[in-house]
Amino acid sequence: MASLLSDKINQVLAKLNQLPEKVKIIEVGPRDGLQNEVEISLSDKISLVNILSHTGLTLIESGSFVSPKWVPQMANSGELFNRIKRTTGVTYSALTPNLIGLNAAIAANVDEVAIFGSASESFSRNNINCSIADSLRQFEPVIKQARTAGLAVRGYVSCTLGCPYEGYISINKVAKVAQQLHDMGCYQISLGDTVGVGTPEAAKAMINAVSQHVPIDNLAVHFHDTYGQALANIYAALQLGISVIDSAVAGLGGCPYAQGASGNVATEDVVYMLNGLGIESGVDLSELIAAGNFICQRLKRPNGSKVALAYPAAQARFQSLI
């Protein structure tokens, strides 16, 4: 009874604060996370995706069909998609920047694909070796062919709150790129703070600018935690009606083209915050922590989630009080 009452109170508080009642988490650890970590075995990557499939997550970005010359960690994505144990209700997506990548993804039976644009000219040239305008032209046939094949296409916009080469990026530029991707057929646009420099008010201003051109229901946020602002920025986004959040288990990742940028916000930390706000995500925190601990052990690195580090000790203390 007390638990039901607590849930009701949390739901009322969420409505009063204009927060969404439910949030969808896009797990990007196996792709955006591992692409900037040390290389690990294919079997470990497959195990990570399989473990994440049983946490309650409904979309896992599992690989990337890009040139192994530039991102060697993703070289075996085709084999990964052929060997993972797919769970009903889970979408397994991949990044496909060009037609070669798209055809490889289709052959691997990928459920959904994503393309990756930038709001920064310098970042675009350093990341995908072409201008923003050229990148968008290259994406047109990818989107068209993907949709013909029955695949939904998600669009990323990087450097929405700052660029490692240019610094400040105009929110009008962000809005323009987001609108173009949406008009081209991307069902959702993920707004990425690639270098993690954003703060809540800056995030709000950027999202408000973009939402004048792309409906808020078609927007997601993707915050890196370089300056420890990711959760605060997510909370600010929730207040504006954003209900889709990208995150990586154990805070994996960074950006190979943004020196000094730390990993994505940890999925465990996002779920813990959502639970505290009374917002449903459908993700089991304990199972998620187990997945993060598994991959960190394989990578031989500390877990980047504060919740994952604190949770076992906290649970033990609570048990001792019962």
TrEMBL record:
Q: In which pathway does it act?
A: Metabolic intermediate metabolism; (S)-3-hydroxy-3-methylglutaryl-CoA degradation; acetoacetate from (S)-3-hydroxy-3-methylglutaryl-CoA: step 1/1
Give all residue intervals belonging to the Pyruvate carboxyltransferase domain.
23-289
Q: Which SUPFAM superfamilies match?
A: Aldolase (SSF51569)
Its top-level enzyme class, in one word, is: lyase
**Which keywords annotate this record?**
Lyase, Metal-binding
Q: Which domain of life does the UniProt lineage start with? A: Bacteria
Enzyme Commission code(s) on record: 4.1.3.4
Molecular function GO labels = hydroxymethylglutaryl-CoA lyase activity; metal ion binding
Coiled-coil region: none
What are its GO biological-process terms? ketone body biosynthetic process; L-leucine catabolic process
The family assignment reads: Belongs to the HMG-CoA lyase family.
Q: What is this protein called?
A: hydroxymethylglutaryl-CoA lyase
